[in-house]
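Progress against Task 2.4 (sequence-to-structure conversion) is shown through the following example record, which the project officer requested during the mid-term review.
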Amino acid sequence: MNKRWGLVLAAGVGAILAACSTPPAAPISTGQTVALIPTGAPVLRCREACLQPWRTAQPEAADLLRRGRWRDLAALLVRVGYQDDLSLYYLARAAQGMGYPDAAAKYYRQSIALSGTAISCVNLSRQCGGLALPRAAEMRLAEIARRPIRRRLPIARRPEAPVWARQPAAAPVEGPAAAPTPLAPLPETAPPPTAAPPVRPPAPGTSDFIEPPPAPK
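Structure tokens generated for the chain above:
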């Protein structure tokens, strides 16, 4: 019996030592959490514990929304971490402004789901940013649903000619081609024939014989 309890005690001590030697998980930074926004992952989870920090940060969030500073707004929301219909609406606007409409649609739906509950801005924080929720979120969600879907049309290609019909490529001309020599224009009419001189008869007392010159001595 004592041996069994000794083994149990040793196992318990070993488990405690192993748990103490395991390093704690590194906290996720604000930048890493902001990087999750394009996926639509839930990044706002704190409620009553973060209520007072949210009341302090909500006017700044509204100002960032008004100026269109979407990344700064997302970083502020993630840093505070408060979750209600207004903070989720701000988060959806930030995602939409950064060019992530699918993620924005998810956050708009989450904001609509929390409106009217016990943790909505009307019932808990008493700060709704001058918005009529969930109507404002529903209008934004409908706007995303109406956006045109842009699809790239396939490029039509001409059918390739068969091998026997392909023409060999002309050899490139390295220098300027010489200009052809112009031909002389042809006369429009043939020239008249030249008349032969008249034949005169020999004079009387002359002969047609021509005496050759004397031979040299």
